[in-house]
Amino acid sequence: MIQRLTSAVYLAAKRGHERVPLDWETRMQIAIGAARGISRIHQANGGKFVHGNIRSSNIFLNPTTSYGCVSDVGLSAVMSPLAAPISRAAGYRAPEVTDTRKATQPSDVYSFGVVLLELLTGKSPIHTTGGDEIMHLVRWVHSVVREEWTAEVFDVELLRYPNIEEEMVEMLQIAMSCVVRVPDQRPKMGEVVKLVEGVRGRDTENRGSTGTSTPQMASTPVPALAAASPPGS
Questions:
Q1: Which residue among 36, 68, 150, 217 is least packed, with the fewest CB closer than 10 Å?
Q2: Global pTM?
Q3: What is the C-alpha to C-alpha distance for residues 119 and 125, in angstroms, rounded to an integer?
């Protein structure tokens, strides 16, 4: 059974309402699979297709490979164009969408960058601080990195996994490039796929030299994303 993420770092347990934190390997597979799926969507209709509602709850885990699969393609056109300003969904929204009320491929890239930040920080796109102040995840990460406390960004659940610090920093850099404020300065999803695959490819080589086995992700096909294929493709 394909399972929907309750957030980018938690998977709903098969029984009851228990939430199970995802390990780093699975988080990387989610990032690779979802990036490939969104890139495929953007290539459709002559390169003009837009998802419009990228968020963790629209990413499913394939039960066999644990790759992320993208769902709810095209539904943004028949849904309310904007989420409430303080809703969790609003945390995925690119700044320009507030003014234009129109999703674009660059705004999809921004939303995917927020998903990456979820994977890295373990925090929701909109959360409250200790003083009950409402904080947007992108702003919080910017503030922490600006103060050169980058290590404080990462989810404490990840501290149990050895030799992933370099990967986490590289993924953070990719995420930050996706959520820059100016749409034209964001990478294309095809570029994001190469960057994320490159992180895992280099890590495979490094771990292989130490005798630790890690599956080669970059050459493994993503499961068929039926939901990510526009009609007639």
A1: 150
A2: 0.77
A3: 11
